[in-house]
Design goal:
Blueprint lengths: L2 H4 L6 H11 L6 H12 L4 E4 L6 H11 L4 E5 L6 H5 E6 L4 E6 L6 E5 L6 H4 L3 H6 L1 E4 L2 E4 L5 E6 L12 H4 L4 E3 L6 H9 L3 H6 L7 H10 L7 H16 L9 H17 L7 H12 L17 H8 L4
Parallel strand pairs: 1-8, 1-9, 2-5, 5-8
Antiparallel strand pairs: 3-4, 6-7
Helix pairs in contact: 2-3, 3-13, 12-13, 13-14, 14-15
Length: 315
């Protein structure tokens, strides 16, 4: 098949501009920025797990501003209630009716900051919103704005006052990433440069919500060959049959790998998905879905994605 005849060219120049803008605020983390944008284009949700102070909140706010999206932040605490997220109905004496007051979930980009500090009941309040792009409050279903993107941050589970996310909720996140500490050059620039909050005020949008929705729809135009599907299925089959993992990758995990790879290919200006695109997104897509059957105590040991890539040949 001639790709140039069957696959339309997709203009991603504004996405490249957005990556450049965000990279001026979040220094030395272009790969993480590209993953976050790919997650949004793939209509997924993003979990960022890392220690406090490495730029998780700044990344989410900068991404929203650069992409021209409305943004809300919720600080999750142990006393946060579902109504604090979804909204609540209040009786109006003038009309003798209940008026619904929307919660912060009614936005384009919502930052669920330190989500694992809240109780499981409150954590689960986001489940319907993340899966169905709607919420049901007091028996009435309300649609959420489009695009809708949840970025949740969580502290390492060994820190005091955390409630680990259950596997069913972890699976709602298309990707999980870590930012990590900056390298010496980026950290020196952070120490010498302007405050990140001041720089954030200067960020101008290079996209609109409508343009982003158009890009999401164009994801279906990214071609996937049968050989590429063979590779993804081989990765899934190895995870199930090798005996190395507690549970193999589910069909939904396979769909997540493919969606993320298509988004990565799109922002990389590829008109069809390459095996390298799959390998680039694999750690972030399966890192929270696939666990070794045995304990890995060696810090140099392979992670699940690396183990899969080394053991499953490219067709």
């Amino acid at each position: 098949m001639n790709m140039s005849e069957t696959v339309p060219t997709i203009d991603t120049s504004n996405i490249t501009k957005a990556i450049d803008v965000i990279s001026q605020i979040i220094l030395g983390k272009e790969n993480s920025i590209r993953l976050a944008i790919a997650c949004l284009i793939a209509r997924g949700h993003l979990l960022i797990e890392d220690t406090p102070g490495v730029g998780k909140t700044t990344l989410s706010h900068t991404l929203a501003k650069a992409l021209g999206l409305d943004y809300q932040r919720i600080q999750f605490t142990s006393d946060l209630l579902p109504a604090d997220i979804l909204g609540v109905s209040v009786y109006n004496r003038d009309t003798s009716k209940f008026d619904f007051h929307q919660g912060p979930v009614f936005t384009n980009v919502i930052l669920a900051d330190e989500i694992n500090r809240a109780t499981p009941r409150t954590q689960s309040a986001l489940l319907e919103a993340m899966a169905e792009y709607q919420v049901t409050v007091e028996g009435e279903t309300r649609d959420l704005p489009k695009p809708f993107f949840v970025i949740a941050t969580q502290n390492p589970s060994n820190q005091i006052g955390t409630f680990p996310l259950p596997e069913s909720q972890l699976d709602r996140f298309l990707m999980r990433i870590e930012l990590g500490y900056p390298d010496n050059i980026a950290e020196r620039e952070l120490l010498k440069g302007k405050n990140r909050k001041d720089l954030l005020e200067e960020v101008q949008a290079v996209l609109t919500a409508e343009e982003l929705i158009k890009l999401q729809k164009q994801l279906d135009s990214v071609h996937v060959s049968d050989a590429l599907l063979d590779y993804v299925q081989s990765l899934m089959e190895f995870s199930r049959s090798s005996g190395n993992y507690i549970h193999g990758l589910s069909p939904r995990a396979g769909i997540a790998i493919l969606s993320a790879a298509k988004a990565w290919a799109l922002i990389s200006s590829h008109q069809h998905v390459l095996p390298e695109d799959v390998q680039m997104v694999l750690p972030s897509v399966i890192g929270h879905r696939l666990n070794f059957l045995y304990d890995v105590t060696d810090k140099q040991a392979l992670q699940p994605a690396e183990h899969l890539i080394r053991n499953v040949p490219i067709p």
